[in-house]
Each structure stands twice: as C-alpha cells, then as structure tokens.
C-alpha cells in the first residue's frame, strides 16, 4: 500500500499532461523538423497498429513487491486520428508500513490481507509493517485524438482503475492548436476524477482510536479531483524541442488512507495507543514542468525540471536528465538516466503524536509519503530494433532503475525512542522489459 495508493493517482493526474505533451511532440515529428536522434522507438506508422507488451518488476527492500504486465496499442490513421489504448494488472505482495512509530517494545496490530483482517506482531526496534499485504489492481485507459482542422486537434480520454477496496473513474479532454508553421503548439486540457474508497471492514472515522473504531465505521467514502493544464511546445530548431506545462487541480472529499494509523507516545517513549490519521478534506495543487530535448547526429539529451506545491505545505522539486546514444544505423541505443527529487513535509505531518497533542490537532498523519525526504533514481535502458527498420520496426527495450530515498528533518524520539532508528529510509529496484511491434 505504501506504493499503490500513491502511484495510480499520480498516473491518473499525469494522463492529461501526457496527452497535451504528445500532441505537440507528435506534430513536430510529423513535420520532420527534429534531428532523428530525438525520435523515439515505436513511433506509430499511419494506418497500422503499434502494439506494446511489457512486464514490469518493482521491489522495495524488505517491503512491497509489484509485478505488472502491461499491454498498449496505438494507431495513427492517415486522416490524422490517433487511438491509444492501455491495459495493466498490478499484483502487490510484501510488507507495507502502517504508520506507527518504531518502539523498544513488541507491538501487535490488526490489518487487511486480501479481503480479510489478520493480526501481526512487530518485534522491538523494527519499523511496524504489515507483512501479509496483498492486493491486485486492474487499470484500463484509452484516448482518441481527432483533427478539427489542419492546425487544430481535439483529444478525449477515459481511465478506470479497480481494486477490491478502491474504484476510480477518470475522464479527460484537451485541445491543441499549431502556430508559426507548426513550430509552436498550444494545448489546453481538463480532467475529472471520481474515486470510491471502500476499505476492508469499512471506513474508520478520521482521528478515532483504533481500539474503538469498529463501532464507528461506515461502508464507503468518495473523493473528487478536478484539474486543468495548459502547455506550450516549441520547436526551437531541427535539433531542439522545448516544452512548458502548468497545471492546477483541486481534490475534495475523503483524503485519508484508511489503513494508516498514528502512535500516541508518552514522554518516556512508551506507546499508549493508536489513532487513525486525519487529513484535511480538500487539497489544491499546482505544478510547473519544463522539458528540453536536444539531439544531434547519434546522440540526444532530455533535461526536465518540475516544481510542485499545494496548500498542505508540501513543496517538491524534481530534476531529471536522460542521455541517449544510438549506434551507426540507429538500430539500437543506450540510455543512462538520473533523477533527483526533494520534498518538504506537509504542515500536519507528525511521525507520532504526544499525549498533549491528542484532541488538539485538527489534522495529523504519520504517513512517510507526506514527510520531508530526498531521493535519487539511477537508470539504464537498452533498446534494439529486431524488425525491419523504418518499414516494420520491432523494438525490444530493457530498463533497470535503482531508487534510494533518504529522510530529511529527523525529529528525535522522546525518551527511549531516541536510541532507535525511527527513519530507515527506502531503497528499491525496478526492471522492465518491453516489446513493441
């Protein structure tokens, strides 16, 4: 749950950004304005489906493992229409942090596993995690791009994501218009996402004591997220493509993770109880994304920067660079990458709650995803065309990434907790094999 409950929402919010960005890039490629080194593998061919099959593996050290088969299909029609379909299944197993703080005493919890609940005990000195976590997520999405004129196109898309305790339905639409002899593309899009949260055993009352919460649960809750994005893609010259996206969205409704709890700790460091987290019922987010792609001969560089901020107090900064080197006939390439990320903590983030704070905090969460941390992701990708180049390409790509997350602003624990490692950080590896034909 540490990964699943955050990743799909990020993907869904990125759908509209991706569609707007691809409109500008696709048109630039269509005009043959860019250096060949900027072109990606598997570019759609007119009136022929490009099918993608992928298998992704993700493993956090000592925590969640995800295996995800993916199927995608893209068709670029001669009349300018483009159809894009995507289907994936996530199978998650392993251990997921429940939000409680590490203790010098054993701790016993009740948690979900599949569609039932179970008890588990965390040894002294260990981070409390649910070792029996298991879930399956099925997601399907599609988009249809229609030319309204020679310089204007309209895209409409939809996505559904289902888990046994979660259902999300999203619709998005965007319009793009070219200027300056198709060198400039302005895109505007909106999306609406509606989620239904129905956790095992019902939805706990935010901030309630876990010992008495069973009597206060309700069957389900809902959340709505509406956003807009404006983007500009500019062909600077045949070697350089620049892009800027600005997005704004507002979410309201049930914003909690129903399985996350908080420890109530005395001044001596003894945990006296647990409360369910309580987040604000609304969240407004804004971001600015800048991307520059430069290509020459058999090389290209992609440098992107992103700033994100919200009214919860979270500020994040992301920088990513990818360097691609092609062989002489552009039938294969190597692509190393590096991503740097840093975020500040939410205003209501507390690794634990003191007895004095119980009842006095309007919002509180110990979810480490809302804490302050920075992270580095190192990646390497290799791609090779095993088909007929430029006629019927068949791209096989292998990508491996190593992720390391380090906690910032380490608040010392009270009493005996001061001697424990309360912030273990996180490392993970991801590998993906993709075949496009």
Core attributes:
about 5% helix, 16-stranded antiparallel beta barrel, disordered N terminus, 3-stranded mixed sheet, about 425 residues, single chain, 21 strands, Porin, about 55% strand, mainly beta
Folded structure, characterized:
Strands 1-2-3-6-7-8-9-10-11-14-15-16-17-19-20-21 form a 16-stranded antiparallel β-barrel. The protein has a three-stranded mixed β-sheet with strand order 13-12-18, with no helix packed on it. 32% of the residues are buried. Strand 6 and strand 7 (152-163) form a beta hairpin. It has one helix and 21 strands. The chain has 437 residues and is mainly beta. The model is unreliable at 1-39 (pLDDT under 50).
The chain-level mean pLDDT equals 88
Largest sheet: 16 strands, antiparallel, barrel
Strand order of the largest sheet: 1-2-3-6-7-8-9-10-11-14-15-16-17-19-20-21
* CATH class wording: Mainly Beta
Summarize this, please?
The protein is mostly beta strands and 437 residues long. Helix content is 5%, strand content 56%.
Secondary structure topology:
Elements: H1 7-30, E1 49-60, E2 65-76, E3 82-97, E4 107-113, E5 116-122, E6 129-147, E7 152-163, E8 166-179, E9 184-197, E10 221-237, E11 240-253, E12 261-265, E13 271-276, E14 282-296, E15 299-310, E16 315-326, E17 332-343, E18 353-354, E19 373-385, E20 395-407, E21 426-436
Parallel strand pairs: 12-18
Antiparallel strand pairs: 1-2, 1-21, 2-3, 3-6, 4-5, 6-7, 7-8, 8-9, 9-10, 10-11, 11-14, 12-13, 14-15, 15-16, 16-17, 17-19, 19-20, 20-21
